[in-house]
Amino acid sequence: MQHIDAETAGALLSRMELAVHEVCMNVVEHAQLPPGSTIELSLVLSSDGLTVWVRDPGEEFDLAAVPSPPERVLQERGYGIKIARALVSELTYRRTGSGNELALRIDLGNDHGGA
Hints:
The chain is of the alpha+beta class. It has a single domain, classed as Histidine kinase-like ATPase, C-terminal domain (Heat Shock Protein 90). It has helices at about 5-30, 80-85; strands at about 40-45, 50-55, 90-95, 100-105. Helix 1 runs antiparallel to helix 2 (about 80-85). The longest helix has 25 residues, at about 5-30. The two termini are about 25 Å apart. Keywords: Kinase, Serine/threonine-protein kinase, Transferase. InterPro entries: Anti-sigma-factor_SerPK, HATPase_C_sf, HATPase_dom.
């Protein structure tokens, strides 16, 4: 079993918290959720990584087609997925029978993933 110190664990959790926040804000703003919908979060911490799944009943979307905001142009919106991708080791999407599922993973390797 791999052990990490408290400072590293805190930084890891802070990165994941921000990445999950950005993904959830995108869901709220863009998924066209039915009234009364919920966003479901699941978390698994294993010996090799931390994974959070974000599930929602919203409209299907193409993660690969999400544009990055233009460089050198200051704007307040459009950075959510880019920020999440930079913070985690892996960000994946799949459509399920009940909606969308995004998986965010930070590997517990030597570099501790993303940023």
